[in-house]
Write a structure and sequence with these properties.
This protein is an alpha+beta fold and 444 residues long. The chain is built from 12 helices and 16 strands.
Length: 444
Amino acid sequence: MEKNNRNFRNRNLQNADISEEEFKKLQELEINDEGFKDEESPKHKKAGAPIAPLGGGNAVYFDFDDPVPQFDEVIAIQFQTAGKVYWYYYPEQKNEGKELVNGDVIVAYSERGMELATVLNKCMDDFKRQNKINFIKNGFIRKARNEDLEKAKKLETSAKQAAEVIEKINKELGIKMKVIKVKYTLDDSKAIFYFSANGRVDFRELIKRLAYELRRRIEMRQIGVRDTTKLMGGLGPCGMDLCCSRHMHNFLPVSIKMAKDQNLSLNPNKISGICGRLFCCLGYENPTYEKLRADYPEEETPVTEKATGRKGFIKKLNVLIESLTVVFPENHDKKEKYEERVFPRTALEQIKGQWVLNPVAETIAREKEPKFVLPVIAKEKDLLKDPSPVSDGEEKEKRPPREKQNSDNRPKEDKDNHKKPFKKRFRKNPHHNNGPKNNPQPKE
């Protein structure tokens, strides 16, 4: 990462594309969080260990001695919308009447305790990418009943009241934190508070008072800006719901190099989302751009023009229209000025490990390009018709001559009959400034 940032800085700052301040902002945008903190932490995952020391029931990860489960013996579930996908061992679904399909709501054990989960469609490719330790056994409890759904709604109301309690205690203790979400486990034994704050927060006294007020175990989880946006949701600049809160189960690693390869503006305000990080959608088209750029040299690669022998370097690539911008620097000895030229990809050849611009290949490629003729509309056909020629016998109609007018835009006869108005003379009064210039009299 440091090497890529160093190359990015040298290439762009030397060309004065961005300033030092904008480059620092771009580096801050590139910092990725570890992931959604509401999910399990990989560092606590061990083979054969329980998924949660408290409240996880008998659910454990697969051990090395356990056989690898089959595709028909597992189910893929998520505990919240666009949450992490978990693979649970459930061989009973082979029996009639116990099979689970997409959209079914079940009760299962998670890292936080007993919760409601939704069954997802399984994908064979995702199943093959899972290690044996990723599968969880003894985690499935039962299908959700109406009682479970009603209880979940009541717990949501209790969670809203708990949010008001913590806000009140924070004001009394002077703790600066923003409570994002409050969640109760389905067995009503634990309250989980998700909050965001600048730096670390000492909430030891806060937990004591919350435990006294709510009479439950308290768990505090500090989350980052990406996790906050995922929980709160919102609309992106495209007008759609945010990808992280709609369908993204995991955050994609996004870098500044992706934005640069896609010829996007390096303005931090234009390539960052409402979370303050780079757009997650930059990673969607990145594999396509990497495949197209495989046949192109990198930026700052020296090239030589075969006809004149002039040396330059590649400044910009546009893989969509298959073109590249080459810069020829100023040469005082040969009196050659600075020049930027755009060449098609066909004009670039590699000879003995060096890139050469061949104008002959450029002209041949242009001749082979198909020539498209746009259809002519009926109205355009009338405009394109030649005007009818005038025969020798016919004469063009001449316009009648225009009468000459004087400077005052009146005919001569009217001017002779017009009499000049009589001008009154005014005597200047030194006491007040009344004169013909300040107060002109109307003409008779």
